[in-house]
Automatic annotation (TrEMBL):
It holds the Pfam family FlbD. Keywords: Cell projection, Cilium, Flagellum. It comes from Nocardioides zeicaulis. This is Flagellar FlbD family protein.
């Protein structure tokens, strides 16, 4: 989500995944995938920078260590139960 400002001065948060395109006419116009348009006070480059930073934060959060996992273990094995034949499939090979 990115924080933008309408030309009236009111701030709003926009889901950056919904942006289809940005235009500078000379005001910055954000067009969403559903066709809705927002005219914002931020410049074109500033909006692009915000989107890049937001996407980078998502990637960084996804690569953060998971709590409860031993960070010093080089290999953590998961032990699964043995698989046995299903009684209705025995003899059908």
């Amino acid at each position: 989500m990115i924080l933008l400002t309408r030309l009236s001065g009111s701030a709003f948060v926009l889901n950056a995944d919904l942006i289809e395109r940005l235009d500078s006419t000379p005001d910055t116009v954000v067009t969403l995938v559903d066709g809705k348009k927002y005219v914002v006070a931020e410049g074109l480059v500033e909006v692009v920078d915000q989107v890049r930073a937001w996407r980078g934060s998502i990637i960084a959060a996804g690569s953060a260590p998971i709590t409860g996992v031993d960070p010093h273990a080089t290999h953590q094995r998961v032990h699964l139960a043995a698989v046995s034949s299903h009684p209705t499939l025995e003899g059908e090979a």
